[in-house]
Write a structure and sequence with these properties.
By secondary structure, the chain is an alpha/beta fold. The chain is built from 32 helices and 31 strands. The longest helix has 30 residues.
Length: 958
């Protein structure tokens, strides 16, 4: 029996145990051995993480697809797991050590520190997995993976070694994003651009051969910079080749202030004549754009900062080379001064010599580390790189050919822009937690890359014997005795970028590089669900690695979802205090309500505006479903053995079968197209507007009437439609539907494994040919033996029943609308005249008179050749229904009220349009503020349209 009150927490706890005990989500179940696989790999959350709203959306959408395909008979593998999250995890453990006043990692040593990290992972690493289970994620939890599992680590090493052997991994000295607090390179995704109020310094650089004077503009060139402290590493000044002001100076030297080094003026289009002075200093070792300018003009790279962001001048051979006599004293004075303190002191020194022309306030974005909060420094250092340009070519071709498609398709443009302009991928990190790079260095710095230390030693000894650095006898001794080769070769201390191991996720999780049967069965995967912000960092890299090592793209479809914002459209952030915790919403409203809210809002075209009120609305929807199922149970509604809805005789029951078929087709087609909001909205309308608000209400007379064929058929149909709803709604709201299925359906088996309402039919030759033409060259679906069920959409349809019940619904709806528009009190009953009614209407109206009178608050229904004078006329399915309202409505008062409301709407429209017409407002206001004004305008326009319609109707009543 269904409990009186809907209690999500009780249901969720109970159903989670039921699913887990029954192994409902296990891939490769015996009953699915011959089924076509359907595979999704979860974007592995950080092991340090906690469920946030992005996770909630992403995993809800994945779960909808997995539950949908599981019910369609596919062998579903939703591969779960977590990412070791190098920096984040190392920071967590280091913070713990500091808080507990224990030795830091340096004092502890690498081996002991890593033991502590693994200990923390064992104790706390499953937090987010348990939170995903609370959300209802139907992953095959028995296959959970971790990016530093032994098998995945083996895959990482193999990939590194093979790419290095093929010349696709190499070491190079380039600029990286350097975190001066964490002392490591970081990826672009770990960099936050923060708007900072600072200054723009205009500096005078003396021209060689001229006597510098601040009063003589011909003796210097002015450069504008936001970073005067890096000027010490300048090796050029760039001007635009078409800037007439500087054309005569191109190729000449200037004297770098304070330093005295000669540097060249070069012509380069990077310099913008419209910005600053039109001349920019070029510091190749401290700016990514300057690095490229320097490469184009052969400029030196002089790094003047150390790893901690302090000036590094003394013993800096690059800096000291070619300096005039006496400049070293300046180096000693400023050596090891923090970069920001150095900025202030250098500007003071420049001012004292007249090298500062002016200083202007300047607001610009400055990169900050998302975890350390420190300003990120472009830093010139030796790192390991992947030749991403070479690997990107097949990945670009796979999307261009349609082997992999993006949904929505417009994201392909973003993918191509990134991939076609791809730079070498820095894969090394100066951390301890992560996959240690499988590279060893000999005594002369030569690199030996191998899968194991023994293999590296073998290569190294062979090489050094051949080079006669050691004798053959020494080589044999060192090979046999570890002690004798101690310190001979040393392993690279760096670890790999976390994205390197996650790039292998679609096949490493299946057991590659071993010859695991799962690799053949579940690779390539079907759909990847992810956010737009990691298309480059994760999606593109999985494409590159999958194509290179597996010779197939890792997924056929990439679904890109939008962001979840707050109710005003602002991006959630801790600093704004507008972060919505999904776990709090689950505690208050239940996981199903949150999931359905997210699914209903997950449109391709705009971000999701989420509020607790929105989730509450969907909890109320769940309560309505719950109560409707209780109503059916209380009225003994069950599906008899062998019941066939298509054989129902009553128009109302044939109508709900017709509507259920429509909803089934609509939901199925929307999910196949990954239009989650359309599918969820179709279910919302069907459950609330069709089933609860109309079918159950219209069925009450039959359910409460005398026993007989009508009552029996209606009971069966109420239960049948309820069961269809539970099936269709299950992918979106799994907990409540599984509970109601268990309590009401009284059938063996879980709803999670029940058959989807659209029944499969034998594919025709035409369907097979069409599918084969649309499939990729490696798509198993083209095989008739493995054909994905093609569903027969020639479902139940009854236009006659739809016309009759649709007429009743439209008539009641329009009458209710008029009563609401004209403020007619509920207690006031009005008459209805069906004017010039057709034979069909005259035939059906008597059957529904009592229902229409009750639901539309009518005193009487009559027929006439034409509408009475002064009656409001409604057009219902092409026929006139008239409401005589003389004496019922105070026409003059209503007209005054409506005119007043129209005036308010006009004022709202004018106010919004005035703001939107202001170019300055649109350009400078936050995106969510502008969007809010657009929404206000649209709402006011819609309100005005309804008011004008009501006013027009009112005129009929005079």
């Amino acid at each position: 029996m269904i409990e009186k009150n809907y209690q999500p927490a009780d249901i969720e706890a109970r159903m989670s145990v039921v699913w887990e005990d029954s192994l409902a989500f296990k891939a490769g179940r015996p009953d699915r051995r011959d089924a076509v696989p359907f595979t999704i790999v979860i974007p592995p959350p950080n092991v340090t993480g906690s469920l946030h709203m992005g996770h909630a959306l992403n995993n809800t959408l994945q779960d909808i697809l997995c539950r949908f395909e599981r019910m369609r008979g596919r062998d579903v593998l939703w591969q779960p797991g977590t990412d070791h999250a190098g920096i984040a995890t190392q920071m967590v453990v280091e913070r713990q050590l500091m808080e507990r006043q224990q030795p830091g990692r340096r004092e502890m040593g690498r081996e002991k520190f890593l033991e502590r990290v693994w200990q923390w992972k064992a104790e706390s690493g499953d937090t987010i997995i348990n939170q995903l289970k609370r959300l209802g994620a139907s992953c095959d939890w028995s296959r959970e993976r971790f990016t530093m599992d032994e098998g995945l680590s083996k895959a990482v090493v193999k990939v590194f070694v093979e790419l290095h052997r093929d010349g696709l991994i190499y070491k190079d000295k380039r600029l990286v994003n350097w975190d001066t607090k964490l002392l490591t390179a970081i990826s672009d995704l770990e960099v936050q651009q923060t708007e900072v109020k600072s200054h723009l310094w205009y500096l005078r650089y003396p021209i060689e051969g001229k006597t510098f004077s601040p009063e003589d503009p011909s003796s210097f060139i002015v450069v504008a910079t936001t970073r005067p402290e890096t000027m010490l590493g300048d090796t050029g000044v760039a001007v635009h080749p078409e800037d007439e002001r500087y054309q005569k100076l191109v190729g000449k030297n200037i004297i770098l202030p304070l330093v005295g080094r000669k540097i060249k003026i070069v012509a380069d289009e990077y310099s913008d004549p419209e910005k600053g002075s039109g001349a920019v200093k070029v510091t190749p070792a401290h700016d990514f754009n300057d690095f490229e300018v320097g490469n184009r003009h052969g400029l030196r790279r002089i790094s003047v900062l150390d790893k901690e962001g302090c000036l590094d001048l003394v013993d800096n051979e690059d800096y000291l080379r070619d300096l005039p006599e006496g400049a070293s004293q300046f180096a000693e004075e400023f050596n090891k001064v923090d970069r920001f303190a150095a900025r202030k002191r250098i500007v003071e020194r420049l001012e004292s010599f007249g090298f500062v022309e002016r200083i202007e306030p300047h607001t610009h974005t400055v990169p900050h580390g998302d975890r350390s909060g420190t300003v990120i420094e472009p830093y010139l250092t030796d790192q390991w790189y992947v030749d991403a340009k070479t690997l990107a070519k097949p990945a670009i071709a796979a999307v261009r050919s349609g082997e992999t498609t993006f949904v929505p398709k417009n994201w392909e443009k973003t993918y191509f822009e990134w991939m076609e302009n791809i730079q070498p991928w820095c894969i090394s990190r100066q951390l301890w937690w992560g996959h240690q790079i499988p590279a060893w260095y000999g005594p002369d710095g030569k690199v030996f890359v191998a899968e194991t230390e023994e293999e590296a030693v073998s290569h190294a000894l062979g090489y050094y014997v051949e080079q006669e650095v050691i004798t053959a006898e020494q080589g044999r001794e060192m090979a046999l005795d570890r002690n004798k080769r101690e310190g001979f070769i040393t392993r690279d201390e760096d670890v790999l970028d976390t994205w390197f191991s996650s790039a292998l996720w679609p096949f490493s999780t299946l057991g590659w590089p071993e010859d695991a049967p799962e690799v053949k069965r579940y690779y390539p995967t079907n759909v990847l669900v992810t956010g737009w912000d990691i298309i480059f960092f994760w999606v593109a890299r999985m494409m590159m690695m999958g194509l290179h090592f597996m010779k197939e793209a890792p997924f056929s479809t990439v679904y890109i979802h939008r962001l979840v914002r707050d109710e005003k459209g602002a991006k959630m952030s801790k600093s704004k205090g507008n972060v919505i915790d999904p776990l709090n919403l689950i505690d208050e409203y239940g996981a199903d309500a949150l999931r359905f809210a997210l699914a209903r809002e997950a449109a391709h075209t705009h971000d999701i505006k989420l509020s607790s009120q929105l989730v509450e609305i969907n909890r109320n929807f769940a309560t309505k479903l719950w109560n409707s199922c209780r109503f059916a149970e209380m009225n003994e509604c069950v599906v008899p053995e062998g019941f066939e809805p298509a054989k129902a005789k009553e128009p109302l029951n044939r109508w709900i079968a017709h509507k259920a078929a429509e909803a089934t087709r609509e939901v199925t087609e929307a999910l196949e197209a990954h239009s989650f909001n359309e599918a969820a909205s179709a279910m919302y309308r069907f459950v609330l507007n069709i089933y609860c608000d109309w079918y159950v209400e219209l069925a009450k007379p039959a359910l409460l009437g005398a026993d007989g064929p009508l009552r029996a058929e209606t009971r069966a149909m109420v239960a049948w439609a309820r069961d269809e709803i539970l099936k269709l709604l299950h992918p979106f709201m799994p907990f409540i539907t599984e509970e109601l299925w268990e309590v009401t359906a009284k059938r063996d088996g879980l709803l999670a494994l029940a058959e989807w309402p659209l029944k499969p039919s034998q594919p025709t030759p035409e369907q097979l040919a069409m599918l084969a033409a649309a499939a990729g060259p490696t798509d198993p679906l083209i095989s008739p033996a493995l054909i994905m069920p093609i569903f027969d959409h020639a479902d139940f349809s009854d236009p006659k029943a739809e016309a009759e019940i649709g007429w009743v619904i439209d008539l009641v709806t329009q009458i209710r609308s008029v009563r609401a528009e004209m403020n007619i009190p509920p207690a006031t009953l009005t008459a209805l005249v069906l004017a010039g009614a057709s034979a069909e209407t005259k035939e059906r109206a008597p059957r529904w008179t009592d229902v229409i009178k009750r639901m539309a608050r009518l005193s009487d229904i009559s027929f006439a050749d034409r509408a009475p004078d002064g009656a409001v006329q409604l057009l219902v399915r092409g026929e006139v229904a008239a409401l005589p309202l003389k004496g019922v409505v105070d026409v003059a008062a209503e007209r005054t009220r409506l005119d007043k409301e129209i005036g308010k709407a006009d004022a709202d429209i004018k106010r919004a349009e005035s703001k939107l017409a202001n170019e300055k407002f649109v350009a400078n206001a936050a995106e969510e503020v502008v969007e809010e004004e657009r929404e206000k305008r649209e709402a006011a326009l819609a309100r005005k349209a309804k008011l004008l319609e009501a006013l027009e109707r009112l005129k009929q009543a005079t």
